[in-house]
């Protein structure tokens, strides 16, 4: 090795050490701010996920909605269940369903397992609820999402909704498992009844699929993950949210420069201000990807 090459090698080594120290400093700074960065099995950085939530009991005698979230190296899971207020044991059903989804998620090791996890957790929840009911009536809707990288995996049963707020518009994700969506819509399309008759039918909101139902046979699960864009907001809402606020009212809140938690608080405050006579339990979860402090 020539004497002239020695200073060059020393310079390169010094640059490498300095670069490593800068990366380490950046990671420590992120940890200090409460942000955890992972790289998932897709090889894409997961970045940070901010979650906000809000809930109110409304005019119901008890709170039948239940929700939870957790983050692992696979991604961030959020689950919302709306116990059926018209049936007994709604609170038990929603709590048991969410708890089961949370517990089973801890066994998920990679993103490829997420769809199977959703299906297995749904059937496990249904079995547990039916067993606990011991022949009594009860049940719950459920919406679950896993955000990993820019990919959103989801599953739903019942009428709790998952929607994406993008560029001042809502992108619906799941279907409504109600009599109105499953049966009345077909009657309108076939000409058996008018749209006005379908919208005014007392059966339109009757659930045809939910957890705690002995005839439960499937959970709607995404075939492929939804690809998120920067600025997208993911919302999970029980019917107490979307029955109380219009899309225009929700849009005005979500367009404001608010953190997910502030937006969730604003949504609940807006419903409370209406003082609706028959306000249902209301719960909202808002997730935003790649936001690191405002």
Structural description of this entry:
- The chain is an alpha+beta fold and 294 residues long.
- The protein is globular and about 50 Å long.
- Strands 2, 3, 4, 5, 8 and 9 form a six-stranded antiparallel β-sheet that branches. The chain has a five-stranded antiparallel β-sheet with strand order 1-11-10-6-7.
- The model is unreliable at 1-5 and 7-46 (pLDDT under 50).
- α2 (90-105) runs antiparallel to α3 (114-133).
- It has eight helices and eleven strands.
- InterPro entries: PPM-type-like_dom_sf (IPR036457), PPM-type_phosphatase-like_dom (IPR001932).
- The chain crosses the membrane at residues 6-24.
Primary descriptors:
294 residues; alpha+beta; Phosphatase 2c, domain 1; 2 domains; 8 helices; 11 strands
The CATH class label of the largest domain is Alpha Beta
CATH homologous superfamily designation of the largest domain: PPM-type phosphatase domain
Low-confidence stretches: 1-5, 7-46
CATH architecture of the largest domain: 4-Layer Sandwich
Q: What characteristic shape results from the CA principal axes?
A: globular
Give the mean pLDDT: 81
Distance between the termini: 53 Å
Question: What is the element string, with H for helices and E for strands?
Answer: HEEEHHEEEEHHEEEHHHE
Q: Class by helix and strand content?
A: alpha+beta
Radius of gyration, CA atoms, in whole angstroms:
23 Å
State the assembly state of the protein chains: single chain
Number of helices, where a helix is a run of at least 4 consecutive DSSP H or I residues = 8
Quote the CATH topology of the largest domain.
Phosphatase 2c, domain 1
Helical content stands at: 25-40%
Q: What is the count of structural domains? A: 2
Strand content range: 15-25%
For the secondary structure, the number of strands is 11
Largest sheet: 6 strands, antiparallel
């Amino acid at each position: 090795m020539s004497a002239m090459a020695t200073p060059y090698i020393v310079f390169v080594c010094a640059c490498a050490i300095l670069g490593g120290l800068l990366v380490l400093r950046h990671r420590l700074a992120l940890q200090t701010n409460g942000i955890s960065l992972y790289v998932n099995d897709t090889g894409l950085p997961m970045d940070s996920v901010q979650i906000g939530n809000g809930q109110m009991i409304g005019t119901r005698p008890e709170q039948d909605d239940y929700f939870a979230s957790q983050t692992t190296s696979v991604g961030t899971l959020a689950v919302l269940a709306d116990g059926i207020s018209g049936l007994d044991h709604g609170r038990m059903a929603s709590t048991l369903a969410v708890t089961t989804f949370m517990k089973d998620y801890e066994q998920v090791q990679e993103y490829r397992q997420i769809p199977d996890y959703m299906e297995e957790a749904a059937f496990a929840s249904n079995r547990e609820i039916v067993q606990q009911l011991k022949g009594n009536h009860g049940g719950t809707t459920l919406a679950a999402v896993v955000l990993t990288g820019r990919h959103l995996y989801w599953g739903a049963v019942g009428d709790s909704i998952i929607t994406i707020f993008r560029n001042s518009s809502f992108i619906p994700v799941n279907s409504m498992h109600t009599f109105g969506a499953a049966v009345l819509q077909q009657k309108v399309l076939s000409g058996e009844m008018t749209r006005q008759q379908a919208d005014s039918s007392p059966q339109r909101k009757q659930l045809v699929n939910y957890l705690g139902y002995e005839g439960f046979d499937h959970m709607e699960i995404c075939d492929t993950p939804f690809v998120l864009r920067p600025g997208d907001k993911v919302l999970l809402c029980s019917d107490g949210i979307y029955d109380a606020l219009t899309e225009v009212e929700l849009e005005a809140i979500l367009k404001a420069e608010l953190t997910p938690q502030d937006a969730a608080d604003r949504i609940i405050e807006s419903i409370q201000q209406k003082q609706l006579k028959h306000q249902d339990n209301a719960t909202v979860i808002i997730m935003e990807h790649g936001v690191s402090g405002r």
